[in-house]
Write a structure and sequence with these properties.
Blueprint (H helix, E strand, L loop, with lengths): L3 H13 L5 E4 L11 E3 L2 E2 L2 H16 L9 H16 L3 E4 L15 E6 L7 H4 L3 H9 L2 E9 L5 H13 L3 E4 L4 E9 L2 E8 L8 E4 L5 H18 L7 H13 L7 E4 L4 E3 L5 H14 L5
Parallel strand pairs: 1-4, 5-6, 6-7
Antiparallel strand pairs: 1-2, 2-3, 8-9, 9-10, 11-12
């Protein structure tokens, strides 16, 4: 519901830290639609965007009048063509609305991350948070693994695990055998300590993010765990690579997420679009700025 884009942005450099070339498809964009398509730090070139757009539009024109694609499907198909051309080692996909009928389901992902659940698009996804969660899980291929963000309530996570098992899918809490402590926020982002529950807290690694908020810490650790699952890594057995992935989280930028864009007066923007998202952003902002200001 919220946190999908941030989690995708954290996941991409975490996988790149393993030495792989990673494509990423996200939404929305702030200034240029090409922001949605990246390979590493590079946006899709305008020439490639235009060329693949013509292909998709020609396909759309061949469809019956009542079966034409929408904007998200257009962009998704364009991404498919570009990534097929470039052949990255891995692709991180941000889903659109839900999962059961979302185009991203067709990539048959083996690892998925459920970042948060809130009542949204209820006429399509379901009238309860539980039904919405089930819909989103269906974006994952049978036999895959769903990483559950710490933002998912425990009671709901239990029912999600039961539902996933019916279709041969596994669930994994992002913080299973892991520990996150000391979360604090500054104008420059969040910081926290990250370690293993079986190891003394003195060995925990300090992590600094460029994004602020406890919700971004949830997104970061969820992305890290999903990247490790996809790579087939057990973090406690790959300490050096694990440290490189933590460092990659700290380099991640994602414009428009509680971002200060000007001063005198200070102007901050955020793209949260649900009540809980606004609450999380407000809570974080009040840690950074006295209420009387």
């Amino acid at each position: 519901t919220n946190g999908k884009g941030s989690t995708a942005q954290f996941m991409t450099p975490a996988i790149e830290a393993a030495g792989l070339k990673v494509g990423c498809f996200t939404s929305p964009h702030l200034f240029d639609v090409r922001e949605r398509f990246t390979l590493g730090d590079e946006l899709i070139p305008q020439e490639a965007f235009d060329r693949h757009a013509r292909t998709v539009l020609a396909f759309n024109a061949s469809l019956p009048e009542g079966d034409r694609i929408g904007a998200f499907e257009f962009l998704f198909l364009l991404a498919i063509l570009w990534f097929q051309e470039l052949k990255p080692d891995a692709i991180v996909w941000e889903a659109g609305i839900g999962g059961r009928y979302d185009p991203v389901r067709t990539v048959r992902a083996s690892v998925s991350t459920l970042t948060s659940i809130e009542l949204e698009h209820t006429e399509l996804l379901g009238a309860t948070e539980e039904l919405i969660a089930y819909d989103k899980i269906d974006a994952l291929a049978p036999g895959g693994c769903v990483v559950l963000s710490p933002a998912i309530p425990g009671a709901l996570a239990h029912r999600i695990s039961a539902y996933a098992s019916l279709s041969g899918k596994a669930t994994l809490p992002a913080l299973a055998s892991l520990r996150v402590t000391g979360i604090a926020n500054t104008h420059k982002g969040a910081r926290f300590n990250y370690g293993f529950t079986a190891v003394s807290p003195e060995a925990d690694q300090p992590v600094r993010l460029k994004l602020a908020g406890a919700h971004q810490v949830d997104n970061a650790v969820s992305a890290l765990r999903a990247a490790e699952v996809w790579l087939g890594l057990r973090p406690e057995e790959n300490a050096e690579r694990h440290l490189a992935m933590l460092a990659a989280l700290g380099r991640t930028r994602w414009p428009g997420r509680l971002e200060k864009v000007s001063t005198t007066p200070d102007l901050w923007i955020d793209v949260g679009h649900t009540p809980r998202a606004l609450e999380a952003v407000t809570r974080t902002f009040l840690e950074l700025s006295p209420r009387e200001r």
